[in-house]
Amino acid sequence: MKSVQNIQGLLKTIPPGIKLVVVSKTRTSAEILEIYQAGYKIFGENRVQELTDKYHRLPTDIEWHMVGHLQTNKVKYIAPFVHLVHSVDSLKLLQVINNEASKNNRIIECLLEVHIAREESKFGLDREGLKSIIQSPDLKDLNFIRITGLMGMASFTDDVQVISQEFRGLRHTFEEIAKHNYFSPGQFRELSMGMSGDYKIAIEEGITMIRIGTLIFGERIAQE
Ligand SMILES: *Cc1c(COP(=O)(O)O)cnc(C)c1O
Questions:
Q1: Which of 50, 70, 113, 114 yields a CA-CA distance of 20 to 30 A from 177?
Q2: What is the pLDDT of residues 172-187, one digit of tens each?
Q3: How many CB atoms lie within 10 A of CB 136?
């Protein structure tokens, strides 16, 4: 029950209004169930297969988030149940999510992932790519997805300044977009930044959602 104590301790340090996504990748269903039974129901995974397996094994009122890179050909497996995809980084992927959501007659919420770290990465949009999705005339036809905000991951560094700057930069981008009324009032509202190592910095920079694994469950054994 260590993880339950950890999450209760963590929740005390998080201002109200910030949503905690418990990142449960590599953890067993039993470990997740302990937290669920303590009353906590929002979990995030980064692999489609693992997410789908856990969805089938665990209580159906869990709110499942996909936080890892999502390939278009795998969207169909999670479309029946996923609540929020944090990692959308192309219009094509949005279209596929929309299509699969429509088959399931449900709306899937999506965050656009923006690449803010120094490290090279195949994933995440640059500012231009983000702009072109948000201004795309095709968006209005996607009635089964809802873009509710942005997601970002800071550099792997101990340099607090660098991390703060990256988070702040994304918050400014977020505010710019929110200001322009591309979306319905209240729709564009989430900023998902901050993991175990940097969530305190993220909170200072004005985010709405943090994604925490290690601080709750302890160190992970690396995924293959
Ligand atoms: C694993 C992961 C997290 C959680 O990382 P911790 O350092 O264990 O808190 C958050 N976001 C994403 C996208 C992840 O893959």
A1: 70
A2: 999 999 999 899 999 9
A3: 14
